[in-house]
Amino acid sequence: MSIEGRAATGRAIEVRDAEPAEYAAVGEIVAEAFFADGQLEAPDAVFYADVLRDVASRAAAAEIIVALADGVVVGGVTFVPHGGPMADIARDGEAEIRMLGVAPDAQGRGVGTALMRECLARAARTRSAGGAGTLRVVLSTQTVAHGSHRLYERLGFVREPARDWTPVPGVGLLCYVLEL
Description:
- This protein is α+β, with helices and mostly antiparallel strands.
- It has one domain: Gcn5-related N-acetyltransferase (GNAT) (Aminopeptidase), CATH 3.40.630.
- The chain has helices spanning 23-36, 48-53, 55-59, 111-130, 146-154; strands at residues 2-6, 12-17, 63-69, 72-80, 94-102, 136-142, 158-159, 165-168, 171-179.
- Strands 1, 2, 3, 4, 5, 6, 7, 8 and 9 form a 9-stranded mixed beta sheet that branches.
- The model is unreliable at 1-9 (pLDDT under 50).
């Protein structure tokens, strides 16, 4: 499934499932975005860059969605529709969004919003297709990712502090939830 939209600059943004040939570009963009945003500064967090770059492993257990501008990969996200090994915090009836990243030079152009909207559309389809299906979409984000927080809140996500967690010392993650 592919959707198209317009970035803030007027350039068309294509959002679709990533192809294996694009995995390396997605991994580099996501890692670069996390570094640029200060999300890999904690002493025990740098190893996570290798995890962010390993898109092929994620693709075996989740959906990798890519955003392209003029045919060039400018962002990616991991969508976990039904739990499994890629789910960190999802519970029954919840889909999870993970590892969203937009190339620093493409930020502010609607790419992150387009990727998030595609995840939400996929979650909504599972709800309508099967009755109960997905009831909520959840995600974790670092406390320092203020731009990401604004994006999530603009899309209707709300903080759920009772589900905040710390995967490694020095890395506090905030939980956001969107009821479908």
